[in-house]
Every structure is written in structure tokens, then in C-alpha cells.
Amino acid sequence: MVGFLLLFLPFPFLLYIAAPQIRKMLSSGVCTSTVQLPGKVAVVTGANTGIGKETATELAQRGARVYLACRDVQKAELVAREIQTKTGNQQVFVRKLDLADTKSIRAFVQDFSVEEKQLHILINNAGVMMCPYSKTADGFEMHMGVNHLGHFLLTHLLLEKLKESAPSRVVNVSSLAHYLGRIHFHNLQGERYYNAGLAYCHSKLANILFTQELARRLKGSGVTTYSVHPGTVKSELTRHSSFMTWMWWLFSSFLKTPQQGAQTSLYCALTEGLENLSGKHFSDCQLAWVSAQARNEVIARRLWDVSCDLLGIPLD
């Protein structure tokens, strides 16, 4: 028995030594597009940290006018100045956007519409994960309210500007966690039963269903849309869960960096020739498989109708 244990003692050390190679293997997929963006306008939600920050930085590096749409304006201002210094692009702006409050979303779009005549790239990146049960300002369960309904409303309100600016793109950041998600229409707000981990999974499934139905409705408009799995990224997304924060710390050597996590969002936003793949899901800068639930067109259409009803959007 002792000999058996001694045999495995070097394993943690070897795992640590191999971590860079393992992380490289798990971080395949790099956006190699050389597209430049002078004169183009982009909005990135949740751009004051993590994947969103890296996505906004790269768009600014390519010459776009970039709007950091964030709840924490003070933190975002610091990030904007950092991006301006790093890229030399002074057209990086911060605007208040709280996806947990539809009034804030509408105010953001109203102000943005006054400032900008066009919008070419919308990156719906912001999100919450494993929150204790709580509700948004409008009474929606926090995961579904922020991750899905908030971005649903934001995209809806910006659609005309996206169409007028075509060709344009919408990228929705989802997750591999969608495989565990289900859309329980009888319990969409988690009032009958609630599990923080599953609530996150449900909202990520909603992101993919929204992307597919949006693509169907936008066919021929010049606006295309894609959902992405960024990978398991070392970021602040786990801040609501002590357990997940500890797990992220324990396995930090194997996690993607935010820059690596941003690659698939950038790939879908920039790569030429993706128009015929509108509505598809991507991971590591290539097409990725989704769950059977995520391919269900009936659920996608019903979720669209229910979302419109909850948000007071007239049905088409």
C-alpha cells in the first residue's frame, strides 16, 4: 500500500510541470484575421474586465470606435484609458449599461443612437455566474435576466442600426455549460425551484437559442449572428461562488487567459466569409457541436416569444 502511494507522489509535481503544455493544448484556436476596422463602430458589453476587455482592446487596435458598455463606469474609465494608451486609439468610450435594469438598457441605446449613426459589431459578452437567488430591477431571475433577457433587449433595440450598417455582426458569448441547461418555461424565473449552477447553464442555453432564432429572422438583412464558447477562462466570472473561485485558483495553470478566451469572439466578429454560417456556434475558432436542446427550433421560437412578452416587445 505504501509503495502504491509512493508511486503516485510525483504526480502533482509532474502535472504542474506539464501545465503550460496542457494549457496550450486546451487553448487551441487563434483569430488570424487581418481585417482592419477604421470607420467601424463596435459595442462590447462587460468590457471592463476579462474576455470583454481583451476583445475591446483588439477591436481598438484595429482602428474601430469602441464603446465599453459597463455597469461599473469608474472601473471602465480606467480600462478605457489603458486601452487608449496601449493601442494609440483615442476613440474608446465608456457608457453606462446595467443589464439587470431595462431602463438602463433603453437609456444606453437612446444615448448611443444620438452619438452614432452606425453600429457594425455588437459583442454581447457580459454575464453573471452562480449568483445566490436574486432578481433584476424588473423582477427577472438574475442569470436569465442579465445573461439572456438583458442582451435580448439590447440587441432588439440596436437592430435597426445594425441593419442600416450592414454588413454587421452580433456575437453572443455562451458556454459549454449549455449542455446542462434546460428552458423550463413554467419556472423561467426560478421561483418554484432554484440552483445557482443550473441557472447559469439555462441562461447559456438561452444565448444559443436566441442566436439561432435571431439568425433565422435576420436572413437576408446583412446582419449575421454567432454564439461562442470562449473556453474555461481565468476571469472574475466566478466571484459569486467561493467554491468555483477556489477551483479556478486550484486549476489556474490549466485555464485560458482572457486574451486566449477572446479569440473565438474576435474570430466570429472579424473573419471574412462566415456569413453563410450565421446562427452557428463556435469554439476555439471553429464550428462546434451543441446539445439537442440547443438545436430545438420549437423551443427557440417559443423562447423568443416569451422573451418579447416579458420585455414588452411587440411580437412580429
TrEMBL record:
Pfam families: adh_short. Pathway: Cofactor metabolism; retinol metabolism. Gene3D superfamilies: NAD(P)-binding Rossmann-like Domain. Residues 1-19 form the signal peptide. Its EC number is 1.1.1.300. Keywords: Lipid metabolism, NADP, Oxidoreductase, Signal. One of its GO terms (molecular function) is all-trans-retinol dehydrogenase (NADP+) activity. It is an enzyme of class 1 (oxidoreductase). Coiled coil: none annotated. InterPro entries: NAD(P)-bd_dom_sf (IPR036291), SDR_fam (IPR002347). It catalyses: all-trans-retinol + NADP(+) = all-trans-retinal + NADPH + H(+). Belongs to the short-chain dehydrogenases/reductases (SDR) family. PANTHER family: PHOSPHATIDYLINOSITOL-GLYCAN BIOSYNTHESIS CLASS F PROTEIN-RELATED, RETINOL DEHYDROGENASE 11. This is NADP-retinol dehydrogenase. The lineage of its organism: Eukaryota, Metazoa, Chordata, Craniata, Vertebrata.
